[in-house]
Design a protein that fits this description.
Structural class: alpha+beta
Order of helices and strands: HHEEEEHEEHEEEEHE
Distance between the termini: 71 Å
Number of helices: 5
CATH topology: outer membrane lipoprotein receptor (LolB), chain A
Number of strands: 11
CATH architecture: Clam
Largest sheet: 11 strands, antiparallel
Length: 244
Amino acid sequence: MKTKFYLILFISTVILLANNSNSPLEIIKKTENQFRSVDNYQVNMLISIAVPAFRMPKKKYQVFFKQPDKVKIKSKGFGLLPKTGMFTSPKENFNNLTNIRFADGYDKNSDQIKLVGDLIVDSLALEMPNDYARLTFKPTVDVIIDKKNWVITRVMTKIDTLKIMEINNTYDFVSGSYYMPVKSTVEYFVKDARLTKWIKKDIGAIMGNQKNMNIEDDMVRGIISVEYSKYKINKGIEDSIFNE
């Protein structure tokens, strides 16, 4: 009788551990570990923007990164980096979401994992006209994860079924064994007036021309493209670089 009891207990424990290993929290942990596997790197970035009625030349950056969160940007003129998630950890990005779960119809045998979460509106730093607007503004975020390499390949933000922003990251092996982004695109599909000012400010800051943005339409739809090249990975970066 005791043997049968212990056998049932053992099987139950194995099932529980298996379920936990495939939970959203465990998946986030695996993407976090992959992100932390590279201690430091230097990379050149070429950024271009295509927004209707607005054009700017491509902008070059030289970026230095060192774990856990040191980032140094060198460019001609002022400019911020687009929010591709490359320089923030998956855990930090997922902290902007609540109620993280598997997408409906998720196939566990697929090479990709799709998680869905409810976006914390305060993380966008949006100015809401009143409490009702804040309560009714409920974006969700779909996150696609490459299950073989544990990297995030796509992030899509939606309101109901309306897509408002999508980030796509393409990866490849760099220096033989490091699986790093080689291209990112950030595409906006904005038809909500509450987001228009935020995205105009975001695009203007990236290109270093925030005060002179002249996008007349209240709807912003455009693409930010980022190309990464000339990686130098785990070669060591002096802390003094981040203090310049």
